[in-house]
Amino acid sequence: MSRLTIETRAVDAAGHERLSALAGARLAALPPEQCPVDLTVSLTRLYLSESCGKCTPCRVGLAQCAAIMDRILAGEGKPADVDVLRKTAQVVYDSADCAIGFEAGRTLLAALDSFAGDFASHVEDDFCTRTVSAFAPCRATCPAHIDIPGYLACVRAGRDVDALRVIRNDNPLPTVCGYVCEHPCEINCRRALVDSSVNICGIKRYAADNAPAYDPPACAPATGKRVSIVGGGPAGLSAAYYLALMGHDVTVYDQREKLGGMVRYGIPDYRLPQDKLDADVDFVLRTGVKVVSGCAVGTDVPFSEVSSGSDAVYLSIGAHLDKKLGCEGEDAAGVMSAVTFLRAAGAGAPVDLAGKRVCVVGGGNVAMDCTRTARRLGAASVECVYRRRIADMTALPEEIEEAQAEGCQITQLEAPVRIEADAAGRVVALITQPQIIGAVGRGGRPAPRAASVSEHRIACDVVIVAIGQAIDVAAFEGAVKTEWGCIVANEDGSISQTPGLFAGGDAVSGPSTVIKAIAAGKVAAANIDVALGFSHDVHDEVDVPPAHFPLGPTGRVELRCVPFAQAATTFDLAKLGMSAEEAFQETSRCLRCDHHGFGATCRKEELAW
Amino acid sequence: MVELIIDDVTVSVEEGATLLQAARAAGAEIPTLCYFEGLNEIGACRVCVVEVEGEDRLSAACNTAARPGMRVRTDTERVREARMAALQLILSQHDLNCAYCTRDGTCRLQKLLLAYDLIERDELFDMVTEAPSPYAKQLVRGKRSQWKAQAPIQRRTNLCVKCGRCVAACKRLEGIGVWDFVGSGAASNVGVRNGSYMKAEGCVACGQCITHCPTGALSERDDIQLLRDAIADPDVTTVAQIAPATRTSWGVGLGAEEGALPVERMAAALKKLGVDYVFDTSFSADLTIMEEATELLHVLAERAPDENGVVWPMFTSCCPAWVTHVKNAHPDVLDRLSTAKSPMMMFGAVAKTWFAQKRGLDPARVFSVALMPCTAKKTEVKLPMAANEGVFDMDASLTTRELQRLIRDAGVDVAALEDVPLDDPLGSYTGAGVIFGTTGGVMEAALRSAHCFVTGSVPADPEGFAFSPAGAGRPWKEASFDLAGTRVRCAVASGLANAGKLLDAIRAGEAAYEFVEVMACPSGCAGGGGQPIDGTDRELGLERGQVLRGIDRTVTSLRYSHENPVIKVLYEEFLGDPCGERAHQLLHVDHRAKG
């Protein structure tokens, strides 16, 4: 008999891999409305099934925890059960021998901490506070709650205009979102249970690219109410669009020459061409919205003048101030903020980087925008420096990969210490302290700390600081309160101390995504309408095609990139849209959760807001 | 040496010592359940957890290495809670029924549960009851909880704490691995490897899994009723034989201060229970020596290499677990086993022939029972080797533990009994027969007589057969003797894992012997799988074996098997010559015969 044999993969090993892949997909797409107690008992059983059974706390402890939670779910729980559960979970964490056990204990403790109210409600009242959303998961997760299955079905039927009409019921900027949305709708896409989420964002772009021009719906009869909107970014434009459709007299003030805010002055053209943004802005303006551009409220016109002439005011001023590194040499010539740098490029007067060595500091999407823009502006070299690991960057992975592919250096684990300047005060180098990645902190991300090696000197001519933006509220002090640098507004967008004043977008949330700003604008519009004494329904009824039979397991269509060498030299679009064939297939993957499953309980009249 | 601080006490321990060992050196008491020193150190039960300063979680003391400068606490509230919870959790899956359990009083789990006030003993009714527990009972039902009733080893799933000691004992002491951790997750359990049957997985019924089990999950098949029925039947004569090793420990838990009570006391107890004749297996051990020593001399004269060039020694055959193991795992050794029956079986053959004829008894109406330190004997009594057509030579073999239960259940006060001499004629024995019950004893007894047979003289010192101690690489003892010019190289191994290593060495030509003794249990029959368990989690075979050595030295005047007067008469009257035709027919066995 041989001492050793080559092990071939057993058939059941493949079975295990398949099951864990399917389960992993399910967990990743977990519906957020799930009862946490039910979820926790299920996870406990899952973890127990992973146990080898050697040790008591894991083998018996998890089984007993599951039994207790079963009792609680059956309505037979006692308040003491939760204490026993916590104590047992603590013992499993404390004394299990390996990670299968102690991590299961940690999960249980986390569940008990995070969902104490749910456990209490089940124990005390035998009642689950959770209700499943009647929306499809994509729609439920989209901040603007767009009827995604509806517009996907329209695209599938070749009705691209209807697709845009469906989208504009909740989001007046479909083109912008088709290009730059972070698409949270895809996170919980139920299609992930079958293979992978539907490329919703790509389909939206297809619709926006291919639909012929059409007119906005007719506005409601004029109400005679004046609404002023300060800031023409996505939040302001969204509010303006719906308020105009409601028949109000809307004026948008913007400090820049053109509308669009950060979308225009922060997002580079290779991601969102100017003409695409113009199309969405024009559509909004065709509802009769008036624009006062190049006018900074507070500087060019007093805020009091704007507010006194309006029945309501919406502050959507965005987050346009720079955040500083706060290190020595930051005032040297050649150091600039990401906002300044991108704004110049967006305004058509980019910084001349020809032959320059550029360092970008930061790890978010803005840092990637700066990095790739610098590359396109002819920099001799571009190096993005980040103090954590690449894996910890908040930028979308595809942005990072594409930046690298375009020839930019992404340097991880280097923390800027100071900027070195020459006698003339010009940047000559960025000095960094190498970091080592360390323990995972409270936020769940591993924290870096200084490594025991000497500083690095990165020779460069330009340093672009992309470590976040702040909000400039100086002009509105007195009218609004701020906390953590953001305007404090209620959930409905109103400002408590100033009736008729609303605020939203990055100015309230802090720098965030386009779709969240759009959602804020929509919320503000609805509540301003109510505050003005109306309840307009601006829903543009579209006859959505009936549910189709979805495709069986099928690969997800991904957008193609322009060859990187070519893309890196121009501001032309870096990504190509779907073909009609691809769009049809991708929309056919949609499971129509608006029709199947709990979506069937959603009545049509509930779709309008 | 490693210096560390345990509960504020600074201790210095050997490199590689565990926290448990260090704590004991520091005088800190740490409870253990799954731990068995040197055998099972897997940290499964988590009852021995302690707090190590600087560590976020608790550590199992039994398998965490002591490191310099460690600060350990064995007595914090967190530690106590974790231990308490581990015990409560185990109890939640334990079918607590101490009053009906064979391990009441020697159960490790019971001891811990009592110490932590999780169970309570009602002294009046001798009942053990559970304290209120936060956990619901989770007992296993269905096929997993069932067991083959006729197997010599019995298992009760709902008493198992999954400590893995049986797994370790079978794998590491016996080199077999019948038991294994089976299933996973909530269904994980201890069971027969591959979900198979014990016999199919090579079980030799040695019972080491039972003696290493901390609870009553494993036990021998209870054959007590067979003896009760025989005693109750007025037409049946019950003949009992007492194995040497049983006398080393049978008093444990019977009210005697020491486990080692004289065999004459056991005779008194058995007589009180209604047994008609009480004899000693040491007698037939002497008989075995007559046959085996003679056989050895024949073998020495005819030795030749086998087809692989290996010159095999003669192996002893008195351990049924070893014989079974040879049949299962070492077929090349089968023809090298002595053909002599074990003393128990020789006794059975003689009792239902010579003795029955002497007393005018119908062999079919004689119930022959053996009281053995052994569980494998339960299998051996059913092997096909009957002297009388259609009548088994032996009818039952009870373990020392069954004997204790029999005595306890009958309410016999052992301490108050007067010793009773063993019956004639099969109660006659020599010291050589008695040391059969300890490792090396068979070998030594055989050499004593063989020396006399060859030289015609008695050796100056009957204990002069000194063996070199076992080593780590060679876990068996060996010695070389000169039998009137013939070199006899001997080896003694206990534990079938050690025996396996010995066989490998012989096969590889790294070792060569003329005569080898193998016992399946550690330190031989005194450490047998049927012996009393005292709940102290120690190997007891060696110290119990010393009792037999003491009897050989001080109790009996006869120390050579061939000097046993009854043996002489038996050959003269009945058997003829050792290894002669009659002797061969009655006292030898064909190991290849199928039952």
Overall description:
The complex is a heterodimer of chains A (609) and B (595). With 609 residues, chain A is an alpha/beta fold. Chain A folds into four domains: 34-125, de novo design (two linked rop proteins), CATH 1.20.1440; 137-215 and 540-606, Fumarate Reductase Iron-sulfur Protein, Chain B, domain 2 (Orthogonal Bundle), CATH 1.10.1060; 226-319 and 475-531, 3-Layer(bba) Sandwich (FAD/NAD(P)-binding domain); 322-469, FAD/NAD(P)-binding domain, CATH 3.50.50.60. Chain A has 22 helices and 20 strands. In chain A, strand 1, helix 12 (234-245) and strand 2 form a beta-alpha-beta unit. The mean pLDDT of chain A is 94. The longest helix of chain B has 21 residues, at 281-301. Chain B is 32% helix and 14% strand. In chain B, strands 2-1-5-3-4 form a five-stranded mixed β-sheet, sandwiched between helices. Chain B has a four-stranded parallel β-sheet with strand order 13-12-15-16, sandwiched between helices. Chain B has a four-stranded mixed β-sheet with strand order 14-19-18-17. Chain B has three domains: 2-85, Roll (Ubiquitin-like (UB roll)); 142-220, Alpha-Beta Plaits (2-Layer Sandwich), CATH 3.30.70; 236-595, Fe-only Hydrogenase (Larger Subunit), Chain L, domain 3 (3-Layer(aba) Sandwich), CATH 3.40.950.10. Chains A and B meet through helix 2, helix 3 and helix 4 of A and helix 2 of B.
